[in-house]
Structures are given as C-alpha cells and as structure tokens.
C-alpha cells in the first residue's frame, strides 16, 4: 500500500478516544463535542438514526478490524459490551438501526470470532451476538402489519403501540426501508439458529416483489404498508429504492437462494431498458416508464456502478462512474443532487461513501490504475476540504466549501473501508475479504452463512433470467484501452471539451445536420430534424424541455450519429452557458405592510444588468405589463415607464420580453412562470438564457419567479394599491433599520389579515 495513502487512510486511531464525543452517537466535528439526541436542536428525520447507543462506535467496529487495529478493536468491543444499552425509551428508524447498529454488531461479531479463532480475544463469548439478538427482538414489533412491511419507526423500549409511544401511526415507508433487511436479519437467524428474523425479512421482500408494476417490472419509491398501494410512483436507482436492488443481488450471494437472483435480473433488465440512459440514470414513472419523473439525479445512485460490477455488466458501470467522477472533479465532492446537464441541484455533501464504493469495485473488476487515481482524488479532497481539527465535517455547500457540524457514522463505517481496500496490497489484509459480503453499510458478513441452493419447491423459475454474473473482465476487455475509450466521450461531455464535429450531409436529407446552437424548440422544421435523428422533445412539468435520444428510432445509421453529435453539442452548449453559475437573486417586497420581510427566491438572467455588481439593487413599484406575455409592444407603456414590469413566461424569448419593457421605459422586469404549481422549493434554480443574438442592448435587470412565488407577488398587488419591491443579489435590511415612513405605519402591521400571509414565507433556498 502506498505510504502516502496509508498515512491518511490508516490515521483512524483518534476514533478510540473519548475526548470529544464518547459515548454520544455521533461526533460534531466543528464544535468538538458529541451529538446527543434531545440535547441538540432537532434535525428532523435525520435524527431517527440516533438511539443513544453509541452509534458511531458500533458502526465502526469491523472497520477497526479490517484496518488491522486489533488493540483498538478489542477495546471498542469491551466498551460496547460494558456501556451500550439498547432498552432506551426512544423512537428510531428501523432501516437505519438495522443497517448501522444491527449490521455493526453482526460485523463486529464476525471479526471477533475470526480473531478468537486465530488465538486473540479468547475472552470473547459472543457478547456482540447476544446484543444483536436483543436488538433484533426490539425491531420485530415493527413488522406486525398485515402486509409484513415494517413500520418505518419503532420505540426501542416499547415497540409499536400507537401515539403514546410515538409509533404505529405511519402509513407509508420507502421501498429501500422495507427491502433492506434481509442480509442482517438472515445473518442473525443463522448465527443464532432462530429462523424468526429471516422469515420476517423474506416476507417483506416477497410483498414488494408482488407489488411491482407488472408491465414495467419497476417498483415505486414509497408504498403504503397496509394496503400495498404505491404512494410515490417514481422509480429510479437512487434515494428511496437503491439498496432494495442491492439486497436482492447480495441476498443471492449470501444465502444461495436462486429466487433472489431471478428477481434482481428481472428488475435489472427494466432498469437498463427504462432508467439507464448512459451515462445518466433518470427516474421514470412506473406506469409510464418512457416518461421521465424528474430532471436531476441524487448522489445515492453512485452505488449503482458497484452493483453493476457484481452483476457483471461492466461497460455501463464504467460510463456512469466516469460521469460521476467528472461531476465530482467540478465540485471537489459529489453534490447531493445534480441536474442532467451536471449543474448543482442540492449543494450539500454529507461525506457519502457510495462513489468510493463503486470506485473500489471497478478497480477490483478491471485492475485499471485509473481508479487508483480516482481514489487518490477522493482522499485528497477529504483531507483538503473536509478535514477539521476534530474529525471530518460534512459540506454544507460544495460550491462555497462551507461546512456543516456533522459527521455521520457511515463515513467511518464505509468511506474508510473502501478507500483502505482500494489501495491495500495483499500483505495489508490479514484475512480474505472475498470470504465476506458487504452489507449496504459495508459491514462484513461471512459467506459461510450461505445455504447453497435454497430454492423452494412449488414455483417454477424462469431460466431466461439467469444471466452470467461476475465474468472474467480480461475476456470482456481484451484491449486495455477499451475502458479508456468508454470514458473519453463522457469526460468531454461533462468537461465541455468535446470538439465540434465536422459538418457533413446526410444522404436523403439534402442539408447539413442541425447544430445545437441553432436549435429552436418552437421551430417545426427543427423538430422534424430531431425526429429523423431519433431525438425526442419532452415537455417537463416545470416548463422546461428535455431532449432524449433513441438511436434505434433514427431514420438511418448516419442520422443516428448526427443525433448523438447533436446531443453532445447540446450538453456542451449547456455546460458553456453554465460555466459561470449564477447564484439566485432576491425579490424583496419593501412597501407597507411587508417592510422587507417577504423575500422571494428568483432566478437570474444571463443578460441585462448584473445585480451582484450593484450595491443598492433596483427598487421600484410593480405594474403588470399589457400584454401580459410581453411579446409585443406594450399598450400600457406610459404606466410601465419608471416601474418594474410583471410579465408571464411563454410565447417568445426572454430577451424579447426584456426589450419590449425596456423600450416602454421600465427600470426592471419580473417574469412569472406560467406552469401552475411550480415552485423554487421543488424545482432547480432557473436561469433565463438569451435568444442567440447579442443581448448587450438589454441593460435593465430581469428576474424569474416560479408560479408559487409569483402568485405571492400578484396577491400582494391585489390586496394593496401599490407594491414596491427591491431587485437585488440578496435580501437587504429585512426590517432591521426601518425608515420614518415604516415606523409611522408600524402599528398598521396588526391590520394585515392572515389570509394575505398564509402562503407567504420568508425563505432562503440556498
């Protein structure tokens, strides 16, 4: 193992110290103290992982053993046995407690048994296993439903008894929450000889399988645990579903039950048919799988290339992993969510390990040293940007590098394992990791638990689903350059370095292929050219359009190639437009009775006045333009002059709207989305592009409000004769320094009725 890497990966000795956090569940690395539930401000569902059971210590047990820190491991086991109590009157997540705590106890038990067999820890008498069974029994009440799907939460002391124990009132759970139980529960059953746990986990998996959408063979994200109806019918491989697929494959590996492999292969074929658009993985609707469900991807799908390696489907694994790597290099870390054109959608990064996990599995499969360089990048970024004096801090915003006082237990449980294994030489490992299966939390369960063939009689298995798995990659890729050739186009698309293709003519078309920079979505001729190239235009709910290519639908092979070049150009063009990512702007209602306390998140324009360079912003009264679309000369120009014009999106380009209101004498403009229900709460920041022409003639500021925020402004205009707003790069004053006029009307605030404010929120999305 390279010493420069070993020095950082192996520097985990501080975990055994109780200077800052022990026996708390987590370390707060910025304030150097432990996070104890109930003593810190609630973070909502995130805190359901905390059960006052020294979470990080248990979650990290087998990491210590893997790193050959046997002294620290033995001390940690003694502390868990002596100090940890599981009968706490506290409500915890069944899913998180299963994968982190039960999995941690079982992984620690596996390592302790191995060390005892080698002559160490001779004192160990299955104490961790006894604790694991105790915890398993405390989780079992959650499975007392008619469907067999577990309640999402359980009280460790009282189980599921209703509102008095703060449990039993939920009706929904995520697919992954119910489908990520089988490894831990089956291992517990086989370690202890009690079949109850495995039976409950199998019943939950069977129910999910039965409730799959039979046409698409996909599952939704959220399901009703009583009726089995899908509550959220979007389907992908990221948050909410991810480890359900993982556990079908790994249950086959660990338990030897062919049925799990059959189910996985059935789902996988549908994933590759509908969700996979290499290198992207896009959510779809389970009943209409050809329709996209969203235009962004979450970081949890980064585990999927690693699962594809286990499946033996290496090529798409390489492609998706490379896309993730290029996004990572742009921001130092993988954003919690990013758009299909690789912009930040959610800027947080809680030090998730899934990308490192896939990097390790791809290196194991290909032995391509490229993945060692990827791992080195991950490691260096962690040490450069996340390391703080008391540990490693989650990134609050990958764009600014700001930190969050948070270090989840999975960082030590998973990230350290996968980075260590990626760089480890054979002599660094004191046992064979091939004898174990990794749970979704990277806990080690021995393959000796397998029962070989465990197929049950009475159900015929479909042989067509038993495809090869884990092939010899040297047979797949006899040319060492082949993986590199797969990565290169993806790197070009994300990095904006893809060369412009040479213009040529397609036989039968009689004209050069359509170029991305010339494309107009409302041009019928352009749409026909797209159709011939196999490119379809999908109108999304948020008013944007998405381009998807299916080469098989092109009129010819040459047209299909043109379509691929067009898509690459479009990604390059989009990336170039986003090179300088503009932050959100603010529309602040400053007139009576709002006094600056209502701030609406607005999208900027890529033309016109740059509000970030204005110290005072632009302040003025608002007026609705006539015509409202603003696509022709205004009929109320005299009223608009000297004011900020309100316009509706649609029918013409944003720059055209800006020119019309500027000609009328407006000092600014606000475009309101015409897509009813759109909101900055659920849609990514929208930036208004130019019209392909020089827009230097536009000098006023133009901002964009989604429908929800725009309605707040329109309602204010209905209720008040005059509404004054401030357009700026960020909110100002917020009522802290009130003018004489504001103070004179201060008493009138009490007269503002609740119905004016019921939909108004002062919010900052970023």
UniProtKB/TrEMBL annotation:
Signal peptide: none annotated. Its EC number is 3.2.1.-. GO terms for molecular function: calcium ion binding; mannosyl-oligosaccharide 1,2-alpha-mannosidase activity. It catalyses: N(4)-(alpha-D-Man-(1->2)-alpha-D-Man-(1->2)-alpha-D-Man-(1->3)-[alpha-D-Man-(1->2)-alpha-D-Man-(1->3)-[alpha-D-Man-(1->2)-alpha-D-Man-(1->6)]-alpha-D-Man-(1->6)]-beta-D-Man-(1->4)-beta-D-GlcNAc-(1->4)-beta-D-GlcNAc)-L-asparaginyl-[protein] (N-glucan mannose isomer 9A1,2,3B1,2,3) + 4 H2O = N(4)-(alpha-D-Man-(1->3)-[alpha-D-Man-(1->3)-[alpha-D-Man-(1->6)]-alpha-D-Man-(1->6)]-beta-D-Man-(1->4)-beta-D-GlcNAc-(1->4)-beta-D-GlcNAc)-L-asparaginyl-[protein] (N-glucan mannose isomer 5A1,2) + 4 beta-D-mannose; N(4)-(alpha-D-Man-(1->2)-alpha-D-Man-(1->2)-alpha-D-Man-(1->3)-[alpha-D-Man-(1->3)-[alpha-D-Man-(1->2)-alpha-D-Man-(1->6)]-alpha-D-Man-(1->6)]-beta-D-Man-(1->4)-beta-D-GlcNAc-(1->4)-beta-D-GlcNAc)-L-asparaginyl-[protein] (N-glucan mannose isomer 8A1,2,3B1,3) + 3 H2O = N(4)-(alpha-D-Man-(1->3)-[alpha-D-Man-(1->3)-[alpha-D-Man-(1->6)]-alpha-D-Man-(1->6)]-beta-D-Man-(1->4)-beta-D-GlcNAc-(1->4)-beta-D-GlcNAc)-L-asparaginyl-[protein] (N-glucan mannose isomer 5A1,2) + 3 beta-D-mannose. Keywords: Calcium, Endoplasmic reticulum, Glycoprotein, Glycosidase, Hydrolase, Metal-binding, Signal, Unfolded protein response. The active site is at 96 (proton donor), 242, 336 (proton donor), 354. Pfam families: Glyco_hydro_47, PA. Ca(2+) binds at residue 440. GO terms for biological process: carbohydrate metabolic process; endoplasmic reticulum mannose trimming; response to unfolded protein. One of its GO terms (cellular component) is membrane. InterPro entries: 6hp_glycosidase-like_sf (IPR012341), EDEM1/2/3 (IPR044674), EDEM3_PA (IPR037322), Glyco_hydro_47 (IPR001382), PA_dom_sf (IPR046450), PA_domain (IPR003137), Seven-hairpin_glycosidases (IPR036026). Pathway: Protein modification; protein glycosylation. It is found in: Endoplasmic reticulum. The keyword Cell division does not apply. Residues 622-713 form the PA domain. Its cofactor is Ca(2+). Belongs to the glycosyl hydrolase 47 family. This is alpha-1,2-Mannosidase.
């Amino acid at each position: 193992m390279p010493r420069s890497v070993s020095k950082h990966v192996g520097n985990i000795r501080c975990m055994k110290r109780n200077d800052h956090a022990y026996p708390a569940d987590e370390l707060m690395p910025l304030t150097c103290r432990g996070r104890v539930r109930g003593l810190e401000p609630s973070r909502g569902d995130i805190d359901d992982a905390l059960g006052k059971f020294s979470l990080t210590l248990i979650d990290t047990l087998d990491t210590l053993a893997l790193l050959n820190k046997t002294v620290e491991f033995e001390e940690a086991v003694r502390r868990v046995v002596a100090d940890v109590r599981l009968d706490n009157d506290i409500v915890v997540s069944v899913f998180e407690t299963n994968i982190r705590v039960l999995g941690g106890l079982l992984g620690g038990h596996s390592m302790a048994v191995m060390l005892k067999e080698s002559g160490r820890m001779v004192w160990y008498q299955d104490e961790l296993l006894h604790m694991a069974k105790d915890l398993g029994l405390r989780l079992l009440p959650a499975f007392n439903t008619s469907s067999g799907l577990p309640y999402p939460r359980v009280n460790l002391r009282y189980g599921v008894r209703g509102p008095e124990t703060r449990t039993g009132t939920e009706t929904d759970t995520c697919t992954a929450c119910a489908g990520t139980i089988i490894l831990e529960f089956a291992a517990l059953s086989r370690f202890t000889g009690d079949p109850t746990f495995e039976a409950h986990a199998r019943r939950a998996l069977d129910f999910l399988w039965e409730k799959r959408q039979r046409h698409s063979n996909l599952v939704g994200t959220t399901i009703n645990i009583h009726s089995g109806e899908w509550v959220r019918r979007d389907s992908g491989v990221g948050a909410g579903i991810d480890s359900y697929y993982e556990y079908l494959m790994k249950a086959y590996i660990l338990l030897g039950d062919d049925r799990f492999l059959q189910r996985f292969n059935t789902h996988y074929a549908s994933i590759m048919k509908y969700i996979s658009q290499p290198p992207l993985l896009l959510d779809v609707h389970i009943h209409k799988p050809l329709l996209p469900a969203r235009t962004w991807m979450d970081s949890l799908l980064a585990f999927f290339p690693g699962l594809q390696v286990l499946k033996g489907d290496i090529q798409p694994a390489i492609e998706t992993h490379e896309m993730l790597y290029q996004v990572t290099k742009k921001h130092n870390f993988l954003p919690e969510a990013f758009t299909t054109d690789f912009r930040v959608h959610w800027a947080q990064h809680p030090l998730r390990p899934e990308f490192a996990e896939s990097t390790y599995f791809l290196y194991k499969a290909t032995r391509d040293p490229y993945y060692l360089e990827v791992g080195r990048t991950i490691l260096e970024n962690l040490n450069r940007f996340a390391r703080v004096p008391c540990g490693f801090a989650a990134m609050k915003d990958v764009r600014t590098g700001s930190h969050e006082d948070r270090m989840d237990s999975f960082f030590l449980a998973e990230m350290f394992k996968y980075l260590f294994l990626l760089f480890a030489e054979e002599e660094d490992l004191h046992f064979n990791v091939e004898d174990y299966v990794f749970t979704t939390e990277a806990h080690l369960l021995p393959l000796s638990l397998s029962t070989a063939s465990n197929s049950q009689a009475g159900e015929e298995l479909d042989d067509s689903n038993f495809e090869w798995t884990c092939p010899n990659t040297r047979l797949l890729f006899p040319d060492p350059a082949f993986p590199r050739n797969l990565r290169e186009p993806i790197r070009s698309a994300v990095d904006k370095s893809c060369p412009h293709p040479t213009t040529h003519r397609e036989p039968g078309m009689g004209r050069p292929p359509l170029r991305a920079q010339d494309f107009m979505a409302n041009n019928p001729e352009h749409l026909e050219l797209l159709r011939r190239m196999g490119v379809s235009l999908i109108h999304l709910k948020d008013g944007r359009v998405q381009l998807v290519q299916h080469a098989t639908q092109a009129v010819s092979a040459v047209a299909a190639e043109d379509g691929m070049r067009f898509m690459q150009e479009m990604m390059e063009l989009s990336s170039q437009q986003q090179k300088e990512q503009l932050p959100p702007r603010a529309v602040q209602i400053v007139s009576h009775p709002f006094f600056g306390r209502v701030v609406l998140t607005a999208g900027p324009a890529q033309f016109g006045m740059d509000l970030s360079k204005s110290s005072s912003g632009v302040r003025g009264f608002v007026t609705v333009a006539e015509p409202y679309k603003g696509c022709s000369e205004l009929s109320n120009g005299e009223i608009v002059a000297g004011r900020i014009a309100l316009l509706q999106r649609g029918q013409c380009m944003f720059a055209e709207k800006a020119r019309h209101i500027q000609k009328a004498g407006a000092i600014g403009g606000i475009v309101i989305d015409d897509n009813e229900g759109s909101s900055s709460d659920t849609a990514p920041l929208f930036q208004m592009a130019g019209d392909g022409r020089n827009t230097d003639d536009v000098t006023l500021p133009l901002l964009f409000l989604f429908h929800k925020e725009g309605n707040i402004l329109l309602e204010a205009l209905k209720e008040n004769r005059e509404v004054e707003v401030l357009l700026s790069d960020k909110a100002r004053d917020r009522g802290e320094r009130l003018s004489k006029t504001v103070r004179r009307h201060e008493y009138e605030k009490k007269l503002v009725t609740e119905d004016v404010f019921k939909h108004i929120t002062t919010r900052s999305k970023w």
